[in-house]
Design a protein that fits this description.
seven-stranded mixed sheet; 2 domains; about 240 residues; single chain; about 30% helix; alpha+beta
């Protein structure tokens, strides 16, 4: 039964990516060509108009956080639907390994957790939000620490040079492109000489590339995380 679930989930994810590829609003690897294209739309509405974030919109609704996402001056680092399904898959494996070999943790289960704030799940979405407009003018290559909107939580945001061709680098330009990284910190990290955002140990925090950054919306800044980590950075804390 477990294998059947995992295969079906893979098929579902493939369908999501195929459908999303037909409507590509953003440039992979960094800064969109028209960062202010959505300046008359709220952050929530921009996400709602992109099929790769329709499941994220559902969990925002379930948690009742639409108004916070649309709060003036908010920067939202949005996890994709892929990150959500990865989380559901991992939770299902945990359930099957520890409780019920035929059990599963699906989207309805997650919505229930969010609506009822089981184990603080509703508040966990706030780890992706910073109560400040983090435009490029305030970001640095070494990174800076910001409190997220989740009580007691701190994130590290950096704007780093890259020589990765998949992220837009080419030797035809004189200056290498820069990309934004969102680092979820599990423990305190001192920034300073020799300690930059790119040096965060795996046992201190987990880095996540922002695949598209600096989207200016009516109420703040929207950044789209890549698919390298699951929702809530589940199973990354060491």
């Amino acid at each position: 039964m477990k294998k059947i679930f995992l295969i079906n989930l893979t098929v579902l994810l493939t369908m999501v990516f195929v459908m999303s590829a037909c409507k590509k609003d953003y440039i992979e690897g960094g800064i969109p060509e028209n960062a202010d294209l959505y300046k008359d739309s709220t952050t929530y509405d921009v996400l709602k108009g992109n099929p790769m974030y329709d499941t994220l919109v559902q969990i925002i609704d379930a948690a009742g956080l639409k108004d916070i996402v649309n709060k003036e001056g908010t920067t939202f680092f949005a996890p994709s639907d892929h990150a959500i399904f990865s989380y559901l898959n991992s939770r299902t494996i945990f359930v099957q390994d520890n409780y019920d070999i035929n059990g599963h943790f699906g989207l309805d289960s997650l919505k229930y957790y969010l609506q009822n704030n089981v184990n603080g799940t509703k508040d966990s979405l706030l780890m992706y939000m910073v109560n400040k407009p983090l435009t490029y003018s305030v970001l640095t290559s070494n990174g800076a620490l910001y409190p997220s909107m989740l009580t007691g939580d701190t994130v590290l945001i950096s704007f780093e040079e890259t020589t990765d061709e998949e992220l837009g680098y080419t030797n035809l330009v004189s200056q290498a492109p820069h990309v934004v990284y969102f680092t979820q910190l599990w423990y305190h990290y001192d920034l300073g000489p020799g300690n930059t955002a790119s040096d965060v140990p795996d046992n201190i925090g987990v880095r996540n590339l922002v695949k598209t950054s600096g989207i200016l919306t009516k109420n703040g800044v929207l950044n789209l995380l890549d698919n390298s980590n699951s929702l809530f950075f589940y199973d990354t804390k060491q």
